[in-house]
Amino acid sequence: MIRHALITGGSRGIGLAIARLLAKNSYRITLVSRTESHLQSALSTLPDPISPGTNSSRPTSPHSDSASVTPSPHKYVVGSVTSGMFWNKHILGSSLRHEVVDVMVNCAGIGQNSLLVRTTVEDIDKIVDTNLTSMLHGIRYLVKKRHIRRSDFGDRGKVGREAEFTPCIINIASLLGVKGGRGAVAYVASKAGVLGLTRALAAELGPQSIRVNAIVPGYIETDMTADIERTSLLSKIPLRRFGTPDEIAQAALFLATNQYANNCVINLDGGLSAT
Question: Is residue 260 annotated as part of the catalytic site, yes or no?
Fold first, then answer.
């Protein structure tokens, strides 16, 4: 069965790696990001989830202000997740129409490299809005408008392959949200909030058969870590290397498919949290 995954921040890095792996495992993907050129490039790299020999009319096409026709079963939505206008029927809603989202991955995020007193009010708001507030708005919208499938756990007694598939929300947090970090107060606060959001929603949405989980990456090879001075940092990581986006994607696939994973927080930091 082809399922549907909505991924914010899905045009590159961890979000794109998750999109590719889910597509390989029979998911149709909707990518969300601010830059259309990045989305178009990302979309072209997603494998077709349709099994060989399966007939499909492929009715969907990328949605944007200047949508182009494509045979891909995947699509994208251009917009800023921090915008109050994005999470409404005019932008995201018009793209989803009557679609159901089986997996929502909240991966949109920005970093910080400045002491709090040197960080502008505008930058603080931007960091918290992107990394945390946008998740609140997005999850609220999808659940309220019933784009995320809900049920009454009619098959709660079944296990393994017999268990009913339950939708899953996966929030990307950060090791800094647990350990803290100098020069990233707003970022740390926002990522700690993501873990609190995950715990609260796991309890609130669980009875509606919606699972909520989080991944806590350490230092990962992405654009966000490209300019980090690594010599001393690598000496603190027991595995002596940064992780890869593909390794984070493997955790996302586990959370999407394991039907008992709710309030499951997966730590992937090469052992840095143990030091």
Answer: no
Residue 248 lies in a domain: yes
CA 239 to chain centre: 25
Which helix (H) or strand (E) segment holds residue 213: the answer is strand 211-217
| pLDDT exceeds cutoff 80 at 152 | no
Residue 57 lies in a domain: no
Question: What does the CA dihedral 141, 143, 148, 154 come to, rounded to 10 degrees?
Answer: -170
Supply the range of the domain harboring residue 31.
Answer: 3-42+72-274
Selecting among 27, 76, 187, 219, the annotated active-site residue is 187
Per-residue pLDDT tens for 95-111? 887 889 999 999 999 99
CA distances from residue 143 to 42, 100, 101, 104 in whole angstroms, order as listed: 27, 10, 10, 11
CATH number at residue 129: 3.40.50.720
